[in-house]
Protein backbone atom coordinates (compact mmCIF):
# COMPACT_ATOMS: atom_id res chain seq x y z
CA UNK A 1 0.00 0.00 0.00
CA UNK A 2 1.38 3.33 -0.91
CA UNK A 3 0.47 6.35 1.05
CA UNK A 4 2.49 8.60 3.24
CA UNK A 5 0.85 10.55 5.97
CA UNK A 6 -1.36 7.67 6.82
CA UNK A 7 1.71 5.64 7.56
CA UNK A 8 2.20 7.76 10.63
CA UNK A 9 -1.18 6.79 12.01
CA UNK A 10 -0.83 3.14 11.18
CA UNK A 11 2.64 3.16 12.49
CA UNK A 12 1.67 4.80 15.78
CA UNK A 13 -1.11 2.31 16.16
CA UNK A 14 1.19 -0.54 15.33
CA UNK A 15 3.87 0.63 17.68
CA UNK A 16 1.43 0.76 20.56
CA UNK A 17 0.68 -2.87 19.92
CA UNK A 18 4.25 -4.08 19.70
CA UNK A 19 6.48 -1.86 21.79
CA UNK A 20 5.22 -3.16 25.10
CA UNK A 21 5.90 -6.72 24.04
CA UNK A 22 9.18 -6.26 22.29
CA UNK A 23 11.44 -4.04 24.31
CA UNK A 24 14.82 -4.75 22.84
CA UNK A 25 15.06 -5.06 19.07
CA UNK A 26 18.48 -5.12 17.39
CA UNK A 27 17.19 -5.77 13.85
CA UNK A 28 14.01 -5.81 11.81
CA UNK A 29 13.47 -8.52 9.22
CA UNK A 30 10.65 -7.94 6.76
CA UNK A 31 8.59 -10.24 4.54
CA UNK A 32 5.59 -9.46 2.37
CA UNK A 33 4.23 -7.36 -0.48
CA UNK A 34 4.20 -3.76 -1.73
CA UNK A 35 3.23 -2.49 1.71
CA UNK A 36 6.78 -3.32 2.84
CA UNK A 37 8.87 -3.77 -0.34
CA UNK A 38 11.84 -1.41 -0.11
CA UNK A 39 12.95 -1.97 -3.71
CA UNK A 40 13.44 -5.69 -4.31
CA UNK A 41 11.23 -5.56 -7.40
CA UNK A 42 13.74 -3.18 -9.03
CA UNK A 43 15.99 -6.19 -9.48
CA UNK A 44 13.59 -8.75 -10.86
CA UNK A 45 11.93 -8.99 -14.27
CA UNK A 46 8.43 -7.81 -13.41
CA UNK A 47 6.43 -4.87 -14.70
CA UNK A 48 5.41 -4.09 -11.14
CA UNK A 49 7.96 -1.44 -10.20
CA UNK A 50 8.01 2.02 -8.68
CA UNK A 51 11.61 3.11 -9.06
CA UNK A 52 10.78 6.28 -10.98
CA UNK A 53 9.32 9.71 -10.20
CA UNK A 54 7.00 10.75 -8.68
CA UNK A 55 7.49 7.76 -6.36
CA UNK A 56 9.98 8.72 -3.69
CA UNK A 57 9.54 12.46 -4.20
CA UNK A 58 9.24 12.97 -0.42
CA UNK A 59 11.90 10.39 0.42
CA UNK A 60 15.25 11.57 1.69
CA UNK A 61 17.00 13.12 -1.33
CA UNK A 62 13.75 12.95 -3.33
CA UNK A 63 14.89 9.64 -4.77
CA UNK A 64 12.57 6.91 -6.01
CA UNK A 65 13.78 3.72 -4.36
CA UNK A 66 11.25 1.14 -5.44
CA UNK A 67 9.10 1.76 -2.37
CA UNK A 68 5.47 2.07 -3.43
CA UNK A 69 5.18 5.42 -1.73
CA UNK A 70 6.08 9.04 -2.10
CA UNK A 71 8.17 8.66 1.05
CA UNK A 72 9.04 6.04 3.56
CA UNK A 73 6.96 2.94 4.29
CA UNK A 74 5.71 1.68 7.69
CA UNK A 75 8.66 -0.60 8.32
CA UNK A 76 11.02 2.38 7.95
CA UNK A 77 9.14 4.28 10.65
CA UNK A 78 9.13 1.25 12.89
CA UNK A 79 12.87 0.85 12.49
CA UNK A 80 13.41 4.49 13.38
CA UNK A 81 11.12 4.21 16.41
CA UNK A 82 13.17 1.35 17.76
CA UNK A 83 16.22 3.58 17.42
CA UNK A 84 17.79 1.42 14.75
CA UNK A 85 17.92 3.34 11.46
CA UNK A 86 15.64 5.57 9.43
CA UNK A 87 15.00 3.11 6.63
CA UNK A 88 15.28 -0.60 6.00
CA UNK A 89 17.10 -1.55 2.78
CA UNK A 90 15.95 -4.07 0.20
CA UNK A 91 17.90 -7.31 0.21
CA UNK A 92 18.44 -7.19 -3.56
CA UNK A 93 19.73 -3.60 -3.57
CA UNK A 94 23.42 -3.83 -4.51
CA UNK A 95 24.19 -0.62 -2.62
CA UNK A 96 23.88 -2.52 0.64
CA UNK A 97 25.66 -5.48 2.18
CA UNK A 98 25.61 -7.56 5.34
CA UNK A 99 26.91 -4.65 7.41
CA UNK A 100 23.63 -2.87 6.67
CA UNK A 101 21.38 -5.92 6.66
CA UNK A 102 22.58 -6.94 10.12
CA UNK A 103 20.28 -4.29 11.61
CA UNK A 104 17.36 -4.69 9.24
CA UNK A 105 16.50 -6.01 5.81
CA UNK A 106 13.42 -6.36 3.63
CA UNK A 107 12.84 -9.46 1.52
CA UNK A 108 9.42 -8.23 0.45
CA UNK A 109 8.23 -8.11 -3.13
CA UNK A 110 5.33 -5.98 -4.36
CA UNK A 111 2.54 -8.05 -5.83
CA UNK A 112 3.25 -11.21 -3.86
CA UNK A 113 0.93 -13.11 -1.56
CA UNK A 114 0.77 -16.16 0.65
CA UNK A 115 -0.41 -18.20 -2.32
CA UNK A 116 2.24 -19.18 -4.89
CA UNK A 117 -0.33 -18.55 -7.63
CA UNK A 118 -0.48 -14.88 -6.60
CA UNK A 119 3.21 -14.23 -7.10
CA UNK A 120 2.92 -15.84 -10.55
CA UNK A 121 0.41 -13.24 -11.72
CA UNK A 122 3.01 -10.48 -12.04
CA UNK A 123 6.14 -12.67 -11.88
CA UNK A 124 7.26 -11.44 -8.49
CA UNK A 125 9.04 -13.18 -5.62
CA UNK A 126 6.92 -15.84 -3.91
CA UNK A 127 6.85 -15.84 -0.14
CA UNK A 128 8.68 -19.16 0.11
CA UNK A 129 11.54 -17.60 -1.84
CA UNK A 130 11.62 -14.64 0.53
CA UNK A 131 12.26 -17.20 3.24
CA UNK A 132 15.04 -18.78 1.17
CA UNK A 133 16.67 -15.35 0.93
CA UNK A 134 16.38 -15.06 4.68
CA UNK A 135 18.29 -18.32 5.10
CA UNK A 136 21.01 -16.98 2.83
CA UNK A 137 21.07 -13.78 4.88
CA UNK A 138 21.44 -15.78 8.09
CA UNK A 139 24.47 -17.57 6.66
CA UNK A 140 26.05 -14.24 5.77
CA UNK A 141 25.19 -12.90 9.19
CA UNK A 142 26.89 -15.86 10.79
CA UNK A 143 30.01 -15.12 8.77
CA UNK A 144 29.81 -11.48 9.72
CA UNK A 145 29.09 -11.80 13.44
CA UNK A 146 30.52 -15.18 14.22
CA UNK A 147 28.57 -17.74 16.23
CA UNK A 148 28.77 -15.74 19.40
CA UNK A 149 25.97 -13.19 18.92
CA UNK A 150 24.08 -14.89 16.14
CA UNK A 151 21.36 -16.65 18.12
CA UNK A 152 20.82 -13.67 20.33
CA UNK A 153 20.33 -11.33 17.37
CA UNK A 154 18.07 -13.79 15.56
CA UNK A 155 15.98 -14.27 18.69
CA UNK A 156 15.76 -10.60 19.64
CA UNK A 157 15.09 -9.34 16.11
CA UNK A 158 11.59 -8.35 15.10
CA UNK A 159 10.12 -10.24 12.14
CA UNK A 160 7.32 -8.50 10.28
CA UNK A 161 5.01 -10.17 7.77
CA UNK A 162 2.62 -8.11 5.67
CA UNK A 163 0.80 -9.88 2.84
CA UNK A 164 -2.56 -11.24 1.75
CA UNK A 165 -4.26 -8.33 -0.02
CA UNK A 166 -2.97 -9.46 -3.41
CA UNK A 167 -4.18 -13.00 -2.84
CA UNK A 168 -7.68 -11.62 -3.01
CA UNK A 169 -7.46 -8.58 -5.29
CA UNK A 170 -4.88 -9.86 -7.77
CA UNK A 171 -5.79 -13.49 -7.72
CA UNK A 172 -9.00 -14.84 -6.17
CA UNK A 173 -11.35 -12.16 -7.45
CA UNK A 174 -9.70 -11.92 -10.87
CA UNK A 175 -8.84 -15.43 -12.04
CA UNK A 176 -11.01 -18.54 -12.00
CA UNK A 177 -8.36 -20.97 -10.71
CA UNK A 178 -8.73 -20.32 -6.99
CA UNK A 179 -12.29 -19.07 -7.02
CA UNK A 180 -13.53 -22.25 -8.70
CA UNK A 181 -11.51 -24.33 -6.27
CA UNK A 182 -12.36 -22.54 -3.01
CA UNK A 183 -15.16 -20.58 -1.35
CA UNK A 184 -13.92 -17.39 0.33
CA UNK A 185 -13.94 -19.22 3.62
CA UNK A 186 -11.98 -22.10 2.12
CA UNK A 187 -9.46 -19.81 0.48
CA UNK A 188 -8.91 -17.95 3.73
CA UNK A 189 -8.19 -21.25 5.45
CA UNK A 190 -5.85 -22.24 2.63
CA UNK A 191 -3.91 -18.97 3.04
CA UNK A 192 -3.81 -19.28 6.80
CA UNK A 193 -2.33 -22.77 6.60
CA UNK A 194 0.50 -21.23 4.58
CA UNK A 195 0.84 -18.45 7.16
CA UNK A 196 1.04 -20.98 9.95
CA UNK A 197 3.69 -22.98 8.13
CA UNK A 198 5.64 -19.81 7.40
CA UNK A 199 5.64 -18.81 11.06
CA UNK A 200 6.76 -22.29 12.12
CA UNK A 201 9.63 -22.18 9.66
CA UNK A 202 10.66 -18.75 10.90
CA UNK A 203 10.61 -20.10 14.43
CA UNK A 204 12.85 -22.97 13.38
CA UNK A 205 15.23 -20.41 11.91
CA UNK A 206 15.51 -18.77 15.31
CA UNK A 207 12.81 -16.09 15.12
CA UNK A 208 10.92 -15.42 18.35
CA UNK A 209 9.30 -11.99 17.96
CA UNK A 210 6.96 -12.10 15.02
CA UNK A 211 4.21 -9.72 13.99
CA UNK A 212 1.72 -10.54 11.24
CA UNK A 213 -0.25 -7.69 9.70
CA UNK A 214 -3.97 -8.16 9.18
CA UNK A 215 -5.64 -7.13 5.94
CA UNK A 216 -6.70 -3.51 5.36
CA UNK A 217 -10.25 -2.62 4.32
CA UNK A 218 -9.22 -3.55 0.80
CA UNK A 219 -12.59 -2.71 -0.75
CA UNK A 220 -11.86 0.96 -0.02
CA UNK A 221 -8.64 1.14 -2.02
CA UNK A 222 -9.20 3.78 -4.74
CA UNK A 223 -9.00 1.36 -7.63
CA UNK A 224 -11.59 -0.91 -6.08
CA UNK A 225 -13.88 2.07 -5.62
CA UNK A 226 -13.31 3.10 -9.23
CA UNK A 227 -14.43 -0.31 -10.42
CA UNK A 228 -17.49 0.04 -8.19
CA UNK A 229 -19.01 2.96 -10.17
CA UNK A 230 -22.31 1.15 -10.38
CA UNK A 231 -22.61 1.68 -6.65
CA UNK A 232 -21.54 5.31 -6.54
CA UNK A 233 -17.87 4.42 -6.12
CA UNK A 234 -18.45 3.26 -2.59
CA UNK A 235 -16.13 0.86 -0.86
CA UNK A 236 -16.67 -2.68 -2.15
CA UNK A 237 -18.43 -4.38 0.78
CA UNK A 238 -17.64 -7.87 -0.43
CA UNK A 239 -13.89 -7.20 -0.32
CA UNK A 240 -14.08 -5.52 3.05
CA UNK A 241 -15.99 -8.46 4.44
CA UNK A 242 -13.40 -10.86 3.07
CA UNK A 243 -10.68 -8.81 4.77
CA UNK A 244 -12.37 -8.61 8.14
CA UNK A 245 -13.32 -12.28 8.24
CA UNK A 246 -9.75 -13.13 7.26
CA UNK A 247 -8.55 -10.98 10.16
CA UNK A 248 -10.89 -12.79 12.55
CA UNK A 249 -9.42 -16.11 11.52
CA UNK A 250 -5.90 -14.71 11.75
CA UNK A 251 -6.61 -13.61 15.30
CA UNK A 252 -7.42 -17.18 16.23
CA UNK A 253 -4.47 -18.53 14.32
CA UNK A 254 -1.86 -16.49 16.18
CA UNK A 255 -2.86 -18.10 19.48
CA UNK A 256 -1.74 -21.49 18.16
CA UNK A 257 2.02 -21.01 17.71
CA UNK A 258 2.03 -19.09 21.00
CA UNK A 259 0.92 -22.29 22.73
CA UNK A 260 3.03 -24.68 20.69
CA UNK A 261 6.39 -23.02 20.37
CA UNK A 262 8.47 -22.28 23.40
CA UNK A 263 9.49 -18.65 23.71
CA UNK A 264 7.65 -17.39 20.65
CA UNK A 265 5.88 -14.02 20.90
CA UNK A 266 3.61 -13.86 17.88
CA UNK A 267 1.18 -11.00 17.55
CA UNK A 268 -1.39 -9.82 15.09
CA UNK A 269 -1.06 -6.22 14.07
CA UNK A 270 -4.52 -5.30 12.93
CA UNK A 271 -4.86 -1.87 11.36
CA UNK A 272 -8.23 -2.56 9.73
CA UNK A 273 -10.31 -0.54 12.18
CA UNK A 274 -8.10 2.50 12.38
CA UNK A 275 -7.67 2.61 8.62
CA UNK A 276 -11.40 2.26 8.18
CA UNK A 277 -11.95 5.14 10.63
CA UNK A 278 -9.55 7.32 8.70
CA UNK A 279 -11.19 6.48 5.37
CA UNK A 280 -14.65 7.27 6.67
CA UNK A 281 -13.67 10.37 8.64
CA UNK A 282 -10.67 11.78 6.80
CA UNK A 283 -11.29 15.30 8.13
CA UNK A 284 -10.86 14.35 11.74
CA UNK A 285 -7.45 12.90 10.91
CA UNK A 286 -6.34 15.89 8.86
CA UNK A 287 -6.91 14.50 5.40
CA UNK A 288 -8.91 16.12 2.59
CA UNK A 289 -9.39 13.06 0.43
CA UNK A 290 -9.77 9.38 1.22
CA UNK A 291 -11.45 8.30 -1.97
CA UNK A 292 -9.02 9.08 -4.72
CA UNK A 293 -5.26 8.86 -4.62
CA UNK A 294 -2.68 11.61 -5.05
CA UNK A 295 -0.93 10.14 -8.04
CA UNK A 296 -2.47 10.86 -11.43
CA UNK A 297 -6.23 11.19 -11.52
CA UNK A 298 -6.28 9.15 -8.34
CA UNK A 299 -8.77 6.68 -9.74
CA UNK A 300 -6.59 3.93 -11.09
CA UNK A 301 -2.92 4.87 -11.48
CA UNK A 302 -0.25 2.74 -9.92
CA UNK A 303 3.16 1.55 -11.06
CA UNK A 304 4.00 2.71 -14.59
CA UNK A 305 0.79 4.69 -14.94
CA UNK A 306 1.78 6.76 -11.94
CA UNK A 307 4.70 8.49 -13.63
CA UNK A 308 6.12 11.96 -13.74
CA UNK A 309 4.46 12.98 -17.00
CA UNK A 310 1.03 12.36 -15.58
CA UNK A 311 -0.30 15.93 -15.24
CA UNK A 312 -2.89 15.22 -12.57
CA UNK A 313 -0.69 14.25 -9.67
CA UNK A 314 -1.48 16.27 -6.55
CA UNK A 315 1.03 18.64 -5.06
CA UNK A 316 0.59 17.79 -1.40
CA UNK A 317 0.40 14.08 -0.75
CA UNK A 318 -0.22 14.71 2.94
CA UNK A 319 -3.78 15.70 2.11
CA UNK A 320 -4.53 12.31 0.66
CA UNK A 321 -4.99 9.04 2.46
CA UNK A 322 -3.78 7.18 -0.59
CA UNK A 323 -0.71 7.91 -2.61
CA UNK A 324 -1.61 5.68 -5.54
CA UNK A 325 -4.57 3.54 -6.46
CA UNK A 326 -2.64 0.55 -5.15
CA UNK A 327 -3.78 -2.27 -7.34
CA UNK A 328 -1.63 -2.96 -10.36
CA UNK A 329 -4.39 -4.90 -11.99
CA UNK A 330 -3.66 -4.67 -15.68
CA UNK A 331 -6.76 -6.49 -16.75
CA UNK A 332 -9.10 -4.23 -14.90
CA UNK A 333 -7.30 -0.99 -15.55
CA UNK A 334 -7.17 -1.70 -19.26
CA UNK A 335 -10.91 -1.39 -19.51
CA UNK A 336 -10.84 2.01 -17.85
CA UNK A 337 -10.43 5.18 -19.85
CA UNK A 338 -6.79 6.18 -19.89
CA UNK A 339 -6.25 9.90 -20.02
C1 LIG B 1 29.93 -3.20 3.08
O1 LIG B 1 30.07 -1.98 2.36
C2 LIG B 1 30.86 -1.01 3.04
C3 LIG B 1 30.87 0.27 2.24
O2 LIG B 1 29.84 0.35 1.33
C4 LIG B 1 32.28 -1.53 3.21
O3 LIG B 1 33.03 -0.58 3.91
C5 LIG B 1 32.23 -2.82 3.98
O4 LIG B 1 33.52 -3.38 4.05
C6 LIG B 1 31.28 -3.82 3.31
N1 LIG B 1 31.17 -4.97 4.20
C7 LIG B 1 31.28 -6.23 3.81
C8 LIG B 1 31.16 -7.27 4.88
O5 LIG B 1 31.46 -6.54 2.65
C1 LIG C 1 4.84 -23.08 -3.18
O1 LIG C 1 5.92 -23.45 -3.99
C2 LIG C 1 7.03 -24.01 -3.29
C3 LIG C 1 8.16 -24.24 -4.27
O2 LIG C 1 7.76 -24.98 -5.36
C4 LIG C 1 6.59 -25.29 -2.60
O3 LIG C 1 7.67 -25.80 -1.86
C5 LIG C 1 5.41 -24.99 -1.68
O4 LIG C 1 4.94 -26.19 -1.11
C6 LIG C 1 4.31 -24.30 -2.45
N1 LIG C 1 3.27 -23.91 -1.52
C7 LIG C 1 2.02 -24.36 -1.61
C8 LIG C 1 1.08 -23.97 -0.53
O5 LIG C 1 1.63 -25.05 -2.53
From TrEMBL:
Gene Ontology MF, one: hydrolase activity, acting on ester bonds
Q: Which UniProt keywords apply?
A: Signal
Q: Which domain of life is it from?
A: Eukaryota
Protein's UniProt keywords contain Coiled coil: no
User: Which residues are the signal sequence here?
Assistant: 1-23
Ribosomal protein keyword on record: no
Q: Name one Pfam family in it.
A: Lipase_GDSL
Q: Which family does it belong to?
A: Belongs to the 'GDSL' lipolytic enzyme family.
**Name by which UniProt lists this protein:** GDSL esterase/lipase
In its UniProt entry, the species of origin is given as Quillaja saponaria (Soap bark tree)
